[in-house]
């Protein structure tokens, strides 16, 4: 029998992160949003807790807790302050990209900086999104041209999380123009590389504790060793990378939905109309019940998907369960946050209450990693036995630019 009940160790991790998130994140969410960054002391504390890469195998410097434990961590962070999770080193897509795209022998060396003493000040970033789709052909505008014993990169990237402090940046570029989405490559570009321009920070809807911005590449030269080449199919490995990272974002959405539901339920218990709490009226009670069902179902789908990766289940099954979980979690978070604002009435959209921030956070997180629409497309392709066309199931400028 499959059970997603947490082990004793996983339950301890859940309790530890929950206490931390409520004590250090939830009450300071507005402060972090206003300052548009996280305090150095907070990043240091998270590093000392070992939360960022604890899920990784011990062979690459982790504690071997697995992806299920990672989703537990991300749910609690999302319940505290989703924006903070995007502003913490080691919690972004870089780790997942390295685990899927780098040769196994190179992974430990690439991830070692995230466990080092200076890790709280070190970000690894993924530069995937571009300002506009390529009109001349399928694929990216950013190109990587083989020259001598390396490559020369040219182009523009946007929506890069941690763009202003990342070292290195994993840049996706078009290597084979004729191959379209099948001709992509991924290249490690160190901070300070000649020709790498750090652009302006985007003014975003929410998640202001993290920084998202643009990067420009003008004749950036990297050695051949900077290209990450997985053992199998590159497009499939890239899809797995996005799926696994998107699952952690989905877990944050579950945490946000849970927190929004809790706030709405508490408010409906104390706000009275016609002599009784408004939560006792059928329309409101049914709304709360539906949102509670949403939170519980989203959590189970996320944990089932994470368990499948940890258990080494068939690749297609892991992708299918992940697609279902991510699509559902994005929708659940938006419903929970929207209803929390609605149930608070006029107070809901006033910034004295955090529910309006939750609604903004939920909307922006739905554009982080793979979107619900792309995950629906992936689930559908796997359900009917269709081919996994990268142009349909990977986030592309043609479909929807995403924060990574």
Structure report:
- It is a single chain.
- The protein is an alpha+beta fold and 404 residues long.
- Helices cover 48% and strands 15% of the residues.
- The chain contains 13 helices and ten strands.
- Helix 4 (66-80) crosses helix 8 (234-270) and helix 4 packs antiparallel against helix 9.
- The model has no long low-confidence stretch (mean pLDDT 90).
Poorly predicted sequence stretches spanning 5 or more consecutive residues: none
Please report the number of helical segments.
13
- On the 0 to 100 scale, the average pLDDT is 90
Helix content: 40-55%
Number of strands: 10
Spatially, the strands of the biggest sheet line up as 1-4-5-8
Helix-strand category: alpha+beta
List the helices and strands and how they pair.
Layout: H1 8-24, H2 29-35, H3 40-49, H4 66-80, H5 82-86, H6 93-101, H7 104-111, E1 123-127, E2 143-147, E3 150-161, E4 166-174, E5 184-189, E6 196-201, E7 212-223, E8 227-228, H8 234-270, E9 272-273, E10 276-277, H9 282-310, H10 315-343, H11 355-365, H12 372-383, H13 390-393
Parallel strand pairs: 1-4
Antiparallel strand pairs: 2-3, 3-7, 4-5, 5-8, 6-7, 9-10
Helix pairs in contact: 1-4, 4-8, 4-9, 6-8, 8-9, 8-10, 8-11, 9-10, 10-11, 10-12
